[in-house]
């Protein structure tokens, strides 16, 4: 039984990378970044037990000409269009920082528990953000609706899935209902057909792979849906701050 908590702060000093041909091209001093580790709800779980159910974002099936990648995704736009909507933006024109929480486009953190539906959580968070930008309303949408109902393709509830396929389901389904109407239970459930849609999207697009400049342009303009490999033990005890490795 845990009767208290233990914390430690880990700091690393890393050089900030610059992009040639932009205002980020000049050398600068390294930046000190720290993260906080402490006993969390996952701290007493073995690493294998934690990773097995939670690290369940599936790898996309690669086909000839497919633009699906296990990288970042963003909304809205033409589904898997041939161009990148922000490619003509200048890096010099981007803000120095961007925090979509400060813009009111991010709902409170949701805990997926021991259910491998990170794909659903990521897709829903991005959808919530873009709906806020388009309508001015921040609506907490239902991850559980994706877990229960988006099961006839690549996505398989707590057993894993892909954000791309979640976006396709949202479009085909006409949107998602509010979380309050379809609460999260951290387990596979029976699909409640006919749930009233609270918000929807018209499309999605992939950020070009391995292109930090493109990622900077996209995140400066809207919230992103991302997948992170959280298999390192550090994630099990993460409490706050910036992780650099």
Query: Roughly how many Å apart are the termini?
Result: 31 Å
Q: Estimate what percentage of residues fall within beta strands.
A: 5-15%
Low-confidence stretches: 1-32, 42-52, 60-81
Question: Structural class per helix/strand content?
Answer: alpha+beta
Order of helices and strands: EEHEHHHEHHE
Number of strands: 5
CATH architecture descriptor name of the largest domain? Alpha-Beta Complex
On the 0 to 100 scale, the average pLDDT is: 76
CATH class of the largest domain: Alpha Beta
Strand order of the largest sheet: 1-2-5
CATH level-4 homologous superfamily of the largest domain:
Cysteine proteinases
Q: How helix-rich are the residues, as a percent range?
A: 10-25%
Helical stretch count? 6
**Rg, nearest Å:** 19 Å
Q: What would you call the shape?
A: globular
What count of domains describes the coordinates?
A: 2
Describe the overall structure.
It holds the Pfam family Peptidase_C1. By secondary structure, the chain is an alpha+beta fold. It has two domains: 60 residues, no CATH class; 173 residues, Cysteine proteinases (Cathepsin B, Chain A), CATH 3.90.70. It has six helices and five strands. The strands form two sheets. The chain has a three-stranded antiparallel β-sheet. The chain is globular.
Structure in a nutshell:
The protein is an alpha+beta fold and 245 residues long.
Please tag this protein with its features.
disulfide bond, alpha+beta, 10% strand, Papain-like_cys_pep_sf, 2 domains, 245 residues, cysteine-type peptidase activity, Pept_cys_AS, Cathepsin B, Chain A, Peptidase_C1A, disordered N terminus
């Amino acid at each position: 039984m845990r009767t208290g908590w233990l914390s430690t702060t880990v700091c690393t000093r890393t050089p900030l990378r610059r992009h040639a041909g932009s205002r980020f091209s000049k050398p600068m001093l390294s930046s000190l970044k720290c993260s906080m580790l402490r006993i969390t709800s996952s701290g007493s779980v073995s690493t294998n037990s934690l990773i097995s159910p939670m690290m369940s974002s599936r790898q996309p099936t690669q086909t000839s000409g497919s633009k699906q990648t296990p990288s970042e995704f963003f909304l809205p736009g033409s589904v898997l269009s041939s161009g990148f909507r922000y490619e003509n933006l200048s890096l010099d024109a981007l803000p120095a920082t961007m925090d979509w929480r400060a813009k009111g486009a991010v709902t409170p953190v949701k805990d997926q528990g021991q259910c491998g539906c990170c794909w659903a959580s990521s897709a829903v968070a991005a959808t919530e953000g873009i709906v806020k930008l388009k309508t001015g309303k921040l609506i907490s949408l239902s991850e559980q609706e994706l877990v229960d109902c988006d099961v006839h393709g690549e996505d398989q509830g707590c057993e894993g899935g892909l954000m791309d396929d979640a976006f396709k389901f949202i479009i085909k389904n006409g949107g998602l209902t509010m979380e309050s109407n379809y609460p999260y239970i951290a387990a596979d459930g029976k699909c409640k057909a006919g749930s009233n849609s609270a918000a929807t999207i018209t499309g999605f697009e992939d950020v070009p792979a391995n292109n930090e400049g493109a990622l900077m342009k996209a995140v400066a303009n809207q919230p992103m849906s991302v997948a992170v490999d959280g298999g390192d033990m550090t994630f099990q005890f993460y409490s706050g701050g910036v992780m650099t490795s």
